[in-house]
Amino acid sequence: MFRKLFASSILLFCLSLSAFAQKTDTLSITLENIKYPYPVKYFPIHTEGQDIRMAYMDVAPAQNANGRTVVLFHGKNFGGYYWTNVIRALTGRGFRVIVPDQIGFGKSSKAYIHYSFHQMARWNKALLDTLGIQKANILGHSMGGMLATRFALMYPQNTEKLLLEDPIGLEDYRQFVPYATTEEQYKTELKATAESIKRYYQSSYFTAWKPEYDELVRIGAGVTYSADFPRYAKVAAMTFTMIYEQPVVYEFQNITVPTVLFIGKDDKTVVGKGLLSPEEQGAHGQYKFLGKQTAAKIPKAKLIEFDGCGHIPHLEVPTEFIVALLGGL
Q1: Where is the signal peptide, in residue numbers (predicted)?
Q2: Which of 42, 222, 284, 311 would disulfide-bridge 53, Cβ 3.0–4.6 Å?
Q3: Cα end-to-end span (Å), the chain
Q4: What is the dihedral of CA 170, 174, 175, 181, to 10 degrees?
């Protein structure tokens, strides 16, 4: 009898620990419990019969304002929170820095709408108009690079420079990644766990893992404990479809603004990589080649490459990236 009571007590204790861990790790799908490095404001948007809002940081120059602005577009699995070191470096050099969380990401609304790079570009243009910014340097990382490219194509007169940090979309994924419906991708997104997210970040984003990267996993995984996670997963599936179905690779030659590419030579990112065989994975996402090929397509583009660096140079080789970025500006 004592053994049964002891075993039951241990089980209850373990369950309570599990519940406590889940409670402390749980994040809302709009990251209300994540403190961003600078104050967050919200830009109201009405679309498809819905009132939604886009979160953004508007950070003033720390000193010696130079009258120029840099806009930072985040990647698919991130929000404005991972730009902290870049914001600090830019504002320290006199730039005003605008950091939006795109609709569907970060602290912005997780809306059930048709996701489109064209629409996102228009929303960002409207935000800049509201802030009185007529011309800006647009820096886009990963998915943000696809958006930045679309923005520069749509609004060249408002783009001072286009800065692309390991942008995705350097290949047409439709040519070699099997098609998956949004519903099928939704079922895949629902399976995400803290463990699977860390494995993905380790294998896809960095050449060597550092303890400070665990915070990215904590944020990426925290939403999986939320009761609203199905909505988050559905939006993630919808934006996956947007990336897959809306390539920019055929329009690089149409870019008319000064462009700089920042490429981690060990980046091997492929959207939909899990749908490919190991052999197919090795044949694509080779940024040591894709960077050069893309720079050759963009008129007068400048290419800056980082050795021993994967998908996120501004985090993996921050000093080298900041020096290159400031030089590119």
Answers
A1: 1-21
A2: 42
A3: 74
A4: 150
Supply the DSSP symbol for 40: E
What are 144-148's contacts with CB under 8 Å, separation 24+? Answer: 144/72, 144/73, 144/74, 144/75, 144/102, 145/73, 145/169, 146/117, 146/243, 146/246, 146/248, 147/73, 147/102, 147/117, 147/120, 147/121, 148/73
pLDDT, one tens digit per residue, over 173-182 is 999 999 999 9
How many Cβ atoms from other residues are within 10 Å of residue 190's Cβ?
15
Residues 142/168, Cβ–Cβ less than 8 Å = yes
Look at residues 107, 113, 110 and name the one whose alpha carbon lies nearest to residue 228.
Answer: 110
Query: Of 3.30.2000.10, 3.40.50.2000, 3.40.50.720, 3.40.50.1820, which CATH number belongs to 28-328?
Result: 3.40.50.1820
Q: What pLDDT, on the 0 to 100 scale, is given for residue 56?
A: 98
Q: What are the extents of the domains in the chain? A: 28-328
| Maximum distance among all Cα pairs of the chain, rounded to whole angstroms | 80
The residues, any chain, with a CB within 8 Å of residue 164's CB and separated by 6 or more, are 139, 140, 145, 148, 149, 259, 260, 261, 262
pLDDT tens-digit readout, 84-131: 999 999 999 999 999 999 999 999 999 999 999 999 999 999 999 999
Q: What is the pTM of this model?
A: 0.92
Kind and range of the H or E element at 57? Answer: strand 50-59
